[in-house]
Amino acid sequence: QAVSKGASDEDASSETVTSAPSAAKTFKELGLIDSLCEACEKMGYKLPTPIQSESIPLALQGRDIIGLAETGSGKTAAFALPILMALMERPQPFFGLVMAPTRELAYQISQAFESLGSTINVRSTCLVGGMDMVPQAIALGKKPHIVVATPGRLLDHLENTKGFSLRNLKYLVMDEADRLLDMDFGPILDKILKVLPRERRTFLFSATLSSKVESLQRASLSNPARVSISSNK
Ligand code: ADP
Ligand code: MG
C-alpha cells in the first residue's frame, strides 16, 4: 500500500501513514497548546506514543482520521487531544461524541477527557446501558462538551430525552471501530448517524480493522488520513 505522509491526495482514497519512527517529538511540537501539554505531563505522559505523534498533527490540520494501533498504544489521547484543542478555540455544548462498544470503555474514555481537559474545565458525560435514564438525562441537561456513549443508550436518549440534540456536533469518534461496526450495532449506528450534522470531523480508531467497506462507509468519513502503526517492529 502506498506510503506517504501529508501527500496531497487527489484520489478519494486515504493515504497511509506508517510509523517510520521519526525523531520523537514532544506534545508541544505536535502543535498542542501549553495547558494541554501540562495536562499530559500531569498524567505522566512524557512523550507522545507513535499513534499520537502521527495522528495528532493530521487531526489538527482538520483531517478525518482512521487510526490503527494495538491495544494499549494510547489511542484515546490520540483522538481526545485534537478535540480538546478545537474545543478550546470554540467552546460549545455537545462539541464531541465518542461512541464505544462497551460501558467500561465508555467510562474510561470519559475519564480520559476529563483528565486531559482538566486544565480547561472540560465537562464530559457518559451514556451507557444498564443504568437509570433519568440521571443521564439530567447530566445532559447540564450541557456537557463531550458525550461518550454506547450506541443503544445514545439512541434511546436521542429519541426520548427532551431537549437533547447533537445537531451542533463538531467531532465524532468511533472508538474500537471494528467492534462497533461489526457487532449488531449497524442499524442503531445508522439511526444515530442520520441525526448528526454532515459538517463535522470523524475519527475512527481501532486495534484492527476488518470491517467491510460498506460498514466503514456508515461513518461517512471525508477523505480520511489513514494512520497505521504496526507493532511487529
Ligand atoms: P488504547 O486505546 O490504544 O488501547 P489507551 O488510550 O487506553 O490505549 O492508553 C493505554 C494506557 O497508556 C493508558 O493508561 C494511558 O493513560 C497511557 N498513555 C497514553 N498515552 C501515553 C503517553 N504518551 N505516555 C505514557 N502513557 C500513555
Ligand atoms: Mg482504546
- Give the beta-strand count: 8
What composes the largest sheet?
8 strands, parallel
End-to-end distance: 18 Å
| Overall 3D shape | globular
CATH topology, anyone? Rossmann fold
Strand order, sheet with most strands: 1-8-2-7-6-3-5-4
As a percent range, the share of helical residues equals 25-40%
Beta-strand fraction estimate: 5-15%
Q: Any idea of the CATH class?
A: Alpha Beta
Radius of gyration of CA atoms, rounded to a whole number: 17 Å
Function: ATP-dependent rRNA helicase required for pre-ribosomal RNA processing. Involved in the maturation of the 35S-pre-rRNA and to its cleavage to mature 18S rRNA.
Family: Belongs to the DEAD box helicase family. DDX47/RRP3 subfamily.
Protein name: ATP-dependent rRNA helicase RRP3
Domain DEAD-box RNA helicase Q: 25-53
Written account of the structure:
The chain has 233 residues and is an alpha/beta fold. It has one domain (23-228): P-loop containing nucleotide triphosphate hydrolases (Rossmann fold). The protein is 38% helix and 15% strand. It has 9 helices and 8 strands. Strands 1-8-2-7-6-3-5-4 form an 8-stranded parallel β-sheet, sandwiched between helices. The model is unreliable at 1-13 (pLDDT under 50). The protein binds adenosine-5'-diphosphate (ADP) and magnesium ion. Adenosine-5'-diphosphate (ADP) binds next to helix 3. Magnesium ion is lined by residues 75-76, 175. Residues 25-53 form the DEAD-box RNA helicase Q domain. It comes from Penicillium bovifimosum.
